[in-house]
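quick q for whoever's on today - can somebody do inverse folding on this one?? i tried earlier but teh output was garbage lol. tokens:
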């Protein structure tokens, strides 16, 4: 195995707890038409730069917060502009949503995605010049057609992934494998899902729907390629976020009864959570 310099080691942190459910949490299946329709066979966004940022995930297990910050940026990019999300913004939200105390490593314990999303719904995601509030809902992680609909219609899918040690393999320059797949080389380490830990990332686009077709993931400030069979092997939860302040309505965006159902599901959840 190639040696890595100390400064290149451990530049990517994990921090997504095992998937959990909360009473009354919103599900995207309330949007029956949106989730049941046949998703696009191919989603090519190669001409759009979602400009993902690290947002502190190289030193903290704040992937759940970084994922929301990068979802904001991906949504803005699709609408033809960009917004500033700074590392302190992500760390502040990580603190608010998980109990992390800045400067106290003992409290850097990652987050539960549904609780992090609940905090965003209730309190918003605060930036330097504005606070943005998402609506959100969950989906069956085995429903790949639904996940493709989320990706195509709601900017990106917010996923909880069980990473294998083999996925975290780095070359001598600190680069991850160019494509995450289930048939990783033996010298890359344990291929068992979860052997490295849980991580939150975004699904941005895909070249097709076959097992070996490539998808693009947004994580650790970069675009990472993976196969659909890898996604199916590693995924433990899937969610969609909708930013009504940012989204550019289009043919794939939920509308009418679907949108009303998503609003109602979030309102009911907030009332129940309160």
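ok took a stab at it. sequence:
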């Amino acid at each position: 195995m190639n040696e890595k310099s100390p400064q290149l080691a451990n530049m990517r942190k994990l921090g997504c707890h095992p998937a959990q459910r909360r009473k009354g949490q919103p599900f995207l299946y309330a949007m029956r038409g949106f989730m049941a329709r046949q998703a696009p066979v191919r989603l090519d966004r190669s001409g759009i730069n979602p400009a993902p940022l690290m947002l502190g995930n190289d030193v903290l297990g704040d992937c759940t917060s970084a994922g929301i910050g990068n979802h904001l940026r991906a949504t803005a990019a699709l609408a033809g502009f960009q917004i500033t999300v700074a590392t302190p913004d992500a760390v502040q939200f990580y603190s608010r949503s998980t109990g992390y105390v800045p400067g106290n490593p003992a409290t850097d314990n990652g987050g539960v995605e549904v609780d992090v999303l609940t905090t965003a719904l209730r309190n918003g995601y605060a930036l330097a010049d504005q606070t943005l509030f998402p609506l959100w809902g969950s989906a069956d992680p085995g429903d790949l057609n639904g996940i493709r609909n989320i990706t195509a219609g709601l900017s990106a899918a917010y996923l909880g992934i069980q990473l294998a040690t083999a996925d975290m393999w780095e070359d001598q320059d600190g680069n991850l494998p160019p494509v995450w797949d289930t048939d990783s080389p033996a010298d890359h380490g344990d291929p068992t899902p979860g052997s490295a830990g849980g991580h939150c990332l975004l699904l941005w686009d895909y070249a097709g729907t076959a097992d070996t077709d490539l998808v693009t993931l947004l994580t650790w400030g970069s675009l990472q390629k993976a196969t659909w069979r890898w996604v199916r092997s590693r995924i433990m939860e899937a969610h969609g976020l909708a930013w009504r302040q940012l989204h550019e309505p289009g043919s794939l965006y939920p509308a009418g009864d679907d949108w009303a159902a998503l609003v109602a599901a979030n309102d009911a959840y907030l009332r129940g959570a309160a």
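fwiw Residues 28-269 form a domain with the Cathepsin B; Chain A fold (CATH 3.90.70.10). also Residues 73 and 83 are 6 Å apart (CA to CA). so keep that in mind when u check it
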